[in-house]
Design brief:
Oligomer: single chain
Number of strands: 0
Distance between the termini: 46 Å
Order of helices and strands: HHHHHHHHHHH
CATH superfamily of the largest domain: UbiA prenyltransferase
Length: about 290
């Protein structure tokens, strides 16, 4: 059947990345409001549609290389379980549908949706093989999602929130490349950009990014507590599990392939616990 391979190609597990659209509304304390919750849910659906379309484009482009990869060779297009024609039609439908839905929410979300598609296509078709630019574009995809959550509910974005989003995303992107080097080596045929990186360079990028992410989050919690006068203690306490989560993710990336953040989270009970505890303290602080 075509349906199952098609759904698999959309990477349902990786849709958790699109929950980033909840970050800004949650931080602003407006997520519980019916209007904000509805519009944020629509923004989540928009990015699920758009990212699904991009995954299909990426798999169509990389099918020859994926067939040589130890795990990616099982992807439906590479394995011949999903025809390129159906994948192309589905990709077009998802991308158009996502942009139309974004436009129905508001013009700013449509603009960010279009920017996300452009960024993802430039990455998939050209710049994923150019060192440094590749991780910058991966980071940009995360940042666009975070900003999209804010514009979907018409709220201003804190400078420190944007700071955390930018360097947190860079940390995740550098960790992805670091884990690929650990698993495949720098001479991998399936990821040619790795030959332009070294483990020490990526370690430096991770160190800078994780440090600035922690500093930015700490300053955001202080700023938010001072502005609202509530939840300051809970937010301050959330810094601990936030740091623990960053360090456990860094540890996971150093040991082997981490295709996506959600895979590391669900495979590491300590990391999952840190994320859960952080989430509780964060919600208590902004609620």
């Amino acid at each position: 059947m075509t349906f199952v391979p098609l759904v698999q190609s959309l990477r349902p597990k990786q849709m958790i990345k699109n929950l980033l659209v909840l970050a800004a509304p949650a931080a602003a304390g407006v997520l519980p409001e019916a209007r904000s919750l509805w519009r944020t849910a629509l923004a989540f659906i928009v990015f699920c549609l758009l990212s699904g379309g991009i995954y299909l484009v990426n798999d169509l482009r990389d099918a020859p290389l994926d067939r040589k990869h130890p795990t990616k060779r099982h992807r439906p297009i590479a394995a011949g379980e999903l025809s390129p024609r159906i994948a192309t039609l589905a990709a077009g439908g998802l991308l158009v549908g996502g942009l139309v839905l974004a436009a129905l929410v508001n013009a700013d979300l449509a603009l960010l949706g279009a920017l996300f598609v452009a960024n993802s296509l430039i990455y998939s078709l050209w710049l994923k093989r150019v060192a440094v630019l590749d991780i910058v574009l991966i980071s940009a995809g995360f940042v666009i999602r975070a900003v999209a959550g804010a514009v979907s509910v018409d709220i201003a974005i804190s400078s420190w929130f944007l700071f955390v989003a930018m360097f947190g995303s860079l940390f995740l992107a550098a960790s992805k490349r670091s884990s690929e080097i650990a698993a495949l080596g720098i001479d991998s045929e399936t990821r040619s950009v790795l030959e332009h990186y070294s483990a020490s360079f990526l370690t430096q990028v991770q160190t800078i990014a994780v440090s600035l992410t922690l500093v930015g989050y700490t300053l955001w919690t202080t700023e938010h507590g001072n502005e609202t006068g509530a939840g300051e203690t809970w937010l301050a306490l959330s810094i601990g599990p936030f740091l623990l989560g960053l360090l456990r993710y860094l540890l996971s990336a150093s040991k082997g392939p981490v295709e996506a953040p959600e895979s590391a989270i669900f495979e590491d009970p300590v990391l999952l616990g840190a994320v859960g505890l952080w989430g509780v303290l964060f919600l208590l602080g902004v609620g």
